[in-house]
Write a structure and sequence with these properties.
This protein is about 55% helix and about 5% strand. It contains 13 helices and 4 strands. It starts with a helix and ends with a helix.
Length: about 280
């Protein structure tokens, strides 16, 4: 995928900034999702004023189909165009909002950063998600608080009652089995090895500065790490059920690194609230 972008990337042009909050980019997202965090972080890192529309997991599929014809979030609506997939969103943001850059200016560094982005997207993200689900599914309160932080009152009570059915559906949908969990741990170890081989003396994965490679890796393991800078409630932080995942990340060197990258670069949000936009 990176080579396609190297060929088709257009020169970065700074667009006219929106003069009305109703014209701001809109990010459709899931609050806990690692790929959604990747897109959110890019918008915030570039300090692009934007609005957000959060959906409940499961219900987001019909919204995604209406926006892009697909079934996944995140989706960024920019200048009337809906862009799906976190990688495509960052590519678009780099073209329209080039500063501060997430793509290195040096061609070789850029190639390496995009290779790492693709590797972690494909070889880590889905497996980190599966492991997170596997460890949180046995606890209805933890699972619902992490994935549905806005659910309260009668709706939360109803969700807890129905949770055994939901648990079975999730396990079937994501094919969570002893074999798939073991394979996911192997993928996590492989990602850790790739991380250590790429890590530079600077503490970054490519060169001496923060790039899309660092953002991608840190965002994809963020639900497992639950860094304080993550923008939404993280009830799994320090929870005993997620301790085995924290231990696995620590063995790979990813736990302290992710915390440090978040502390350095997950700064103030550029999100404009719905109330401010209305």
């Amino acid at each position: 995928m990176w080579f396609r972008r190297m060929i088709t990337a257009h020169p970065a042009v700074e667009p006219e900034r929106a003069t009305d909050v109703r014209d701001l980019p809109v990010l459709w997202h899931l609050k806990v999702s690692n790929y959604n965090e990747k897109a959110r972080w890019a918008l915030d890192y570039k300090q692009i004023p934007h609005r957000r529309r959060a959906a409940e997991p499961g219900k987001h599929r019909s919204m995604a189909k209406a926006l892009t014809g697909g079934n996944t979030f995140p989706i960024l609506v920019l200048d009337g165009h809906a862009i799906g997939d976190s990688t495509s969103i960052i590519e678009t943001l780099e073209r329209h909002y080039p500063e501060p850059p997430l793509y290195p200016s040096d061609p070789g560094d850029r190639r390496r950063a995009l290779e790492l982005e693709d590797f972690f997207d494909e070889e880590l993200g889905p497996y980190a998600r599966l492991l997170f689900l596997h460890h949180t599914l046995p606890d209805a309160r933890l699972m619902l608080a992490a994935f549905l932080p806005d659910l309260h009152g009668p709706r939360l009570a109803a969700a807890r009652i129905a949770f055994p059915i939901l648990r079975r559906r999730i396990r079937a949908q994501f094919q969570i089995t002893p074999g798939s969990v073991a394979s996911a741990h192997d993928k996590l170890a492989a990602a850790g090895a790739r991380f250590r081989s790429a890590l530079q003396p600077s503490g970054y994965l490519v060169g001496n500065t923060f790039s899309v490679a660092d953002l991608t890796l840190a965002a994809l393991v963020a639900p497992l790490v639950a860094p304080p800078e993550f923008p939404y409630p993280q009830p799994q932080r320090q929870h005993s059920r997620v301790a085995p995942l924290r231990d696995a990340l620590a063995r790979e060197g990813l736990l302290p690194w992710t915390r440090e990258i978040y502390a350095r670069h997950r700064g103030k949000s550029a999100y404009i609230s719905h109330q401010a936009a209305s």
